[in-house]
Amino acid sequence: MGRSPCCEKVGLKKGTWTAEEDQKLLSYIERHGHGSWRALPAKAGLQRCGKSCRLRWINYLRPDIKRGKFSLEEERTIIQLHALLGNRWSAIASHLPKRTDNEIKNHWNTNLKKRLTKMGIDPSTHKPMTSALGSGQHKDAANLGHMAQWESARLEAESRIVRESKLLSTSTTPYHSHLGPPAQVTVLNKVTDVPLVQPLKSMVSPCLDILKAWQETWTTTKSIPTTNAFFSTSNGSLQFPTSTLHFSDNLFTMSQAPGLICDDLPFNSTNNYEARVANNLKYFGKPIDDDQPEIGARMEYSKLMDSKMQLINHDNDIQYDPNIDQDNLRPPNFVVADDGYNLVDNHNPTGLYQDLDCSLLGGDLEDNKIYWVKVLNVETSALDSPFSKRGI
DNA sequence: AAGGGAACCAACCGCGGCTCC
DNA sequence: CGGAGCCGCGGTTGGTTCCCT
Known about the structure:
The chain is mainly α. The protein has helices spanning about 20-30, 40-45, 50-60, 70-85, 90-95, 100-120, 135-170, 200-205, 205-220, 275-285, 295-315, 325-330, 365-375; strands spanning about 120, 125-130, 235-240, 245, 250-255. The longest helix is centred in the middle third of the chain and has 36 residues, at about 135-170.
């Protein structure tokens, strides 16, 4: 029982699709929609398994598919999203209209990955391959890098939740008039396909695991002298693709909102979740509406999430139009440095490739450099900018 | 022109998660 | 609660095309 038999076992056709098969599938879906993929082949008169039909439709026959060479902007988006999301091709594809996950995956594996490797950049960590970490630590770093990527994806989903629910709220009634949680709507997130609106508590709590992991690894690596490695620990901070974590003597914080309910923060004595958020926001100096602390907390949370969203999306949504004065469209820095918050380099918001060592580029170094500076959207000056050593 | 290797890409495979019963 | 069925995802394969010698 369990798994259904594969195509071969039930004598169905495999391999390349013929034009006739394509036509059958196309016309059936145009008339009836795909419905159940498993039932579709028989109804459409195809000697194929449902899986094969689904794949053929999604990757080839769907009308809204763009084929052909990837543009510079698309490549840049793929690289930056891969740094954030890892090999989550469907999530990456959701940010590239008309491109399929399979196509992006192929392009990455056959092209971008090799080019990055050739440049001395580890395509899995998006950092220069020269690392002072030992192999074990490097493995830990890689694992945490992936965890960070998942965290980033999750944050993105959360910010979308907040933004969309806020939009929905403001379209009907003023936001502050809500006494309870934002209206429950079923909007699917592009990345996770999970319902977007959830109670804040359930949205935020999973971040604690990664924070703990970060803390543990940092504690381990802090005692070991490192130079320009995956972790920049020279001044007590940690860097990962989208955030900088900061440690003070007694406080472990994260620059984005999830840290606001970290158990290490003060004001966690109450069981009232919203009040905890509000109090912790106050702790960070964020103004809260004293009359309505829960609503204020939610609004601040939304703002923080929106900022996060801008960081993730601004390259994607704004910068690529060459006819637009991009400097005027860049989002404001998330928060200023030196107070436990992130300092964001607007020219390279992810902080990736900031330590790119051009000496690692072999062969036609200048051409490579020019190309990748364009692809990565890293200003030439940023290669040795103060941000490259920030770890603030 | 021919052969061999590299590159590309469509398609397959197996796993995990979700839903339904 | 657990098993069955289905879908979607990501890794991998294998056929085709391209390029170099």
